[in-house]
Amino acid sequence: MKAIRVLAYQNMPSYRKPTSFVLKESYPMPPYSSVIGMVHAACGFDHYVDMDISVQGSYYSAIGDLYTKYEFGKGTKYEAARHNIKVSSAEKDYGMIRGTGNVEVLGDVELCLHIRPHDEAMLDQISFGLTYPRQYLALGRWEDLLRIDEVKIVKLKSTELEEQIVLKRDAYIPQRMEKSFDENEVLFKGTFYRLNKKYVIDPTTKIRRWDERVLARYATKGSLINSLETVIVDELMEPVFLA
Question: Can you give the pTM of this predicted structure?
Answer without folding.
Answer: 0.88
